Amino acid sequence: MQIADGIFYVGVNDHQLDLFEGQYIVPNGMAYNSYVIVDDKIAVMDSVDANFGDEWIAKIEEVLDGRTPDYLIVQHMEPDHSANITTFTDRYPDAVVVGSVGAFNMMQNYFGTKFEGRNLVVKEGDTLSLGSKELSFIAAPNVHWPEVIFTYVAADKVLFSADAFGKFGALDVDEDWDCEARRYYFGIVGKFGAPVQKVLAKVAKLDVQVICPLHGPILSEDLGHYIGQYQTWSSYGVETPGVVIAYSSVYGHTKEAVELLAQTLKDKGCPRVVVTDLARDDQAEAVEDAFRHGHLVLATTTYCGGVFPAMDQFIHHLIDHAFQKRTVAFVENGSWMPAATKGMRALMDKCANITYTEHNVTVKGSLNDASRAQIDALADELVAQF
Ligand code: FEO
After folding, report:
1. What is the CATH number of domain 243-381?
2. pTM (2 decimals)?
C-alpha cells in the first residue's frame, strides 16, 4: 500500500493475540504498523511483533524489488515494535540503526548490543537526508515510553507518530476509530497527559497532512478531529457530558440501587448515563468511560471491612492512569457495618482535582425508603450540574 510518493505500508495484522500488552482484550485483533520510505536512500520505520518477522521482511522485499534498506528508524522500543530489530540487522548487515540514546540503552538490555559501528543516535531537531526527502526527529518522551521519537517528512507532510494516534484493532477490520482509540489511549498512554500535550504543541507547528501511527489506520482526512480528541484526552477534559455508574454487586441489591439511580438520572434529564459491571465487563472500557465523561458514581459492597475486589481493582486502574478533574459520588452497601464509601474515598483521594458530591447513598442489605430518598437526592445533585 502506497501512502505518499515513495512511502509504503509494510505492517502486519495480528488476529492470534489473546491479550495486548498482557491485559487488553482485542476482539478485532491488532495491527503492528511499519513503513518504508524509498528515496536515494531507503529507511524502514520500526519493526513489528515477534511473531511476524518473516511476513514483515517479505513485505519490505516486495516493495524494494531487489534494493536493500539503508536505515532502520527505531521510534519506540516496546517489543510490539522492536522484537524484529535483530531480524532486520541480520538480514541487512550494512543497514544503520537509528534511534534515541534511550532506545540504544534499551537495545543493550533487550539484544545485548547497541549496534556499535552501525548506529546513529538522534535527538530532538536532528535530521537525516534520504535524498529528496529529509527525516526530522521529534523527541516524544513518555508517549508512550521515555525513548520515543516521532519522525516528520516535510516533503510529503507525513508525520510518523509512534504509539500516538494508534488504536486497538487490525487494519482488515472496519470499525469506528474513536471508541478503540480512546480505550487504547487511556489504557496505554493516558497516564502521560503532560508529555502528550508537549508533543502536540510541537506537532501544531508542522504542516501535517498524513499521520502514520504504529497501530491503527493511517490518518489522512479530518486530522483536526483526531488531534482535537488527543487535546481533550491529554488535558483530561470532558469529552462527553454524562454520568458513568461503575458498580459491583454480590447478590443483586447494589445492582438494584444502581439501576434505580440510572433510571432516576434519565428521568430527571441527565444527558447520558453509562452503567458498567466491573466484575463482568471489560475494565479497560470502564476506565475509558470514566475518562470520557465528567461525572463518576462508584457503587459497591463492603468487603472484609473495605472495598469489594472488582471495585478496588478499578479504582487502582484510575489512580495508575492519573484520573483527575472529575466529580465523584459513592453508593455503598453493607449488611451490618457499611464501610465501602470510606474505603473508596481514601483511594480516590489519591487522584488529583476530584470534587465529591454532597449526597451519597448507603444501602443496608436492600433498598428501603431511606436509601431510595438518598438516590433521589444524589440524582438531583448530579443532574443540576448539566
Ligand atoms: Fe505499541 Fe508502546 O507499544
Report:
1. 3.40.50.360
2. 0.96
